Amino acid sequence: MTTQHGNDTGGGTDGVSRRRVLYGTAAAGAATLLPGTRAARAAGRRNAETVAVLGGGMAGLAAAHELIERGFAVTVFERKALGGKARSIPVEGTGKGGRRDLQGEHGFRFFPGFYRNVPDTMRRIPFPGNADGVHDNLFPLSSTRISRNAGRSDVIVPEVLAPGGGSLDLDVLKETLTGLAQQAAAIPASELALFLNRFIVYLTSSDERRLGQWEHVPWWDYMRADGKSEDYRAIMVRFLTRGLVAVKEEVASTKTVGAMGEAFLLSGLGLGTDGGLARMLNAPTNEAWIDPWVRYLRGRGVRFEVGQTAEALEVGGGRVRSVRLVDAAGRRRDAAADWFVCAMPVERATGLLSPAVLALDPSLASMRDLHTEWMNGLQFFLRRSPHGIDQEVNFMDSPWQITAVLQSRLWKHDFARDFGDGKVADCLSLDISDWDTPGIVYGKPAKKCTRAQIAKECWAQMKDHLEDTGRSVLPDDLLHSWFLDPAISWQASAGGNANDEPLMVNTVGSWEKRPEARTRIPNLFMAGDYVRTNVDLATMEGANESGRAAVNALLDASGSPAGRVEMWTLYRPPELDGLKKLDAQRYRAGERNLFDTL
To answer: Distance (Å, rounded) from C-alpha 62 to C-alpha 59?
Structure first.
């Protein structure tokens, strides 16, 4: 990759710069070659402007996708593995007799219906036999169990309630109705009214109030959780934060949690959804999505250099000139480019903020104040498929806020035939969302447990929910083996774990500290789940949206005539526009929301 220097910045008030003319010529030449052979496409980009994408996770791949389709020459530098936190992680050495290795995960993939940017990308990734590309590997999640402990009945959303669902199961129906009755009785009517009021207040709050007020109020305070029943705290307050977005309710931004609750409600009503309330993949993530994506991008001309860590940015003349890379052996080199997209996770992106970089854009320094938490996966490989476990299970009262999916109910594979040693019939894939609360076996938080203790603790917490009424769901002989996300590593000297891949979380006031996609450095752009986005949550959707925003900013800065990337926003019911307009007036006048009367 080479850097082009000169006096032209690609700007100009007349809208026709030398860069625009040159780029337009190159783009037109490339367009005459498409569609064509890979060699023809590469030839058409020999004179194209070069982009270094730093990071090959969701944001980096999304940016590379949009850039390569617009005629840029793109190289992706990734330190670890393409796909980032969304990737599959093969358990090396477990495949026998021609079978594939068992598949581990950083965390199972869950696609809420309100995701729109990610599904658009997936439709544009070819997959053999699929008319709609890898998007056709998604299917509706139709069976979810909200599991309680201490003898309380679970609440199940059975397949019969989903479009195309199965036959009525009277035992499931009985358990669900009993569970709903128990929940209704456990939460006082006054607290149910309080929850409804708080939800209505948020739904009718203007953008000004959401950003100016609710962004700075913890979800715990907004929900008036002090002094309320334990069930109100567990269901209405704690689960919506720790269970879904891995952030503690005492510090979670009400703006973010409220927006997610609103999005789930509306998608459940069929509003603003790409398809249903939620979906899952029908195969391991790499097989169903990441590998086809990388193949497609490679075929279009994207270069991938894995095992290369971006260590520093060299600046000069008010721009980024090159990125210093280091490989696993400690060898260093510089890579130059015309444009740079930083798509690294926030805890690593901040390592690039040298004094020289901050001198060009001091606002980036606030990224160092952003907060991360842990949300990592653990897979239990089973000798038999257990009874009484649905596609997805939320262990509502687990100290570690565990959620799980049963892969045999999702994947198109026969486990014993396709994976492992032939003795594994299923996989229970967990997300552990709370690493700071003591568990029930060792009395220690997950951060202080060894890997084996984490596995034993999670198994016990699931049994505490599924077997609290005397039935046997997870007998110990069911367990074949387990696999904990390798990002978690035991540090004996510190008496605890380290996490190589934490998750940025939306704490109160974090919006102001997060960067826009376009920085004050003319050829540096930010992409990642911490960048300001409409979805405003550290998710695959947020990362994808940020990658699109970075590309649009780059197109503007370069003067490119290429079409801008389409971007979707969360659905807002027009029926509430009048109330939101009134709320904006009340907010500017220093008054409460019209419904904020409790």
So the answer is: 5
